[in-house]
Write a structure and sequence with these properties.
The protein is α+β, with helices and mostly antiparallel strands. The chain has a single domain (29-189), classed as NADH Oxidase. Helices cover 41% and strands 13% of the residues. It contains nine helices and four strands, in the order H-H-H-E-H-H-E-H-H-E-H-E-H. It has helices at residues 7-13, 18-26, 41-51, 71-78, 83-91, 108-111, 126-150, 163-170, 201-204, and strands at 63-67, 94-101, 154-158, 176-185. The chain has a four-stranded antiparallel beta sheet with strand order 1-2-4-3. Helix 3 (41-51) crosses helix 7 (126-150) and helix 4 (71-78) packs antiparallel against helix 5. The longest helix is centred in the middle third of the chain and has 25 residues, at 126-150.
Length: 208
């Protein structure tokens, strides 16, 4: 059985300062409303520069980010969201559609220059490529959310949407497949639901 760990003990083990720990982990929340303050383009660029450092299989980096910013595009996106998510997305200062590229292997010479010939391993197996792309893009999406927090903003990741409809609107003609929509910005009024309990280490962790 694992013994409880106090926050003070956690602080003693960290290589980052306590304020950063609070911002990235302990105080970080999923925002449900946002202020109208715009997110500058250089901040959105910084989010990607951090996100791209995520670990992925063979450095394959299948995540594709579409920032949906124009009012017309925002309405097109909202029409494919669950009703409870539509107004959140209309009012957020920045919205990202996260997709995975099932043809990620086409970029082998760029992301894995020591062995670009490995592309041939995946040329004929679209299903395997899609599964690898999806799994690694999910890994990158966690780093994306941490990057949003690192630049001082909050994220509202959502899965309640018609993925096929979003793909038809924003990924047509590509091998990209949407799997998450993330609202980004500074929190607005009543942005937080009460924090729900987390599982204890006794339930979630074991040592063999």
């Amino acid at each position: 059985m694992n013994s409880p760990t106090s926050l003070a003990t956690i602080d003693d083990t960290l290589a980052i300062d306590s304020d950063s720990t609070q911002r990235l982990f302990l105080d970080a929340r999923t925002a449900n409303s946002f202020s109208s303050k715009p997110v500058p383009a250089d901040t959105l660029a910084a989010i990607y520069e951090l996100t791209k450092m995520s670990p992925t299989m063979m450095n394959n980096q299948p995540l594709r980010i579409t920032w949906v910013q124009s009012p017309e595009a925002r309405e097109r996106l909202a029409s494919h969201l669950a009703e409870g998510n539509q107004e959140k997305t209309r009012s957020a200062p920045a919205v990202a559609v996260l997709s995975y590229d099932s043809d990620w292997h086409e970029h082998f010479p760029t992301f894995f220059p020591p062995a670009p010939e490995r592309k041939a391993m995946f040329d004929g197996d679209r299903n395997t490529r899609a599964e690898i792309g999806k799994n690694n893009a999910w890994l990158q999406s966690g780093i994306f959310i941490m990057a949003v927090r690192a630049v001082g903003l909050h994220a509202g990741p959502m899965g309640g949407f018609d993925a096929a409809g979003v793909d038809a609107e924003f990924n047509a003609g590509t091998a990209h497949r949407a799997f998450m929509v993330v609202n980004v910005g500074e929190p607005g009024e009543n942005a937080w639901f009460p924090r729900l309990p987390r599982l204890s280490a006794d339930i979630a962790v074991r040592t063999i």
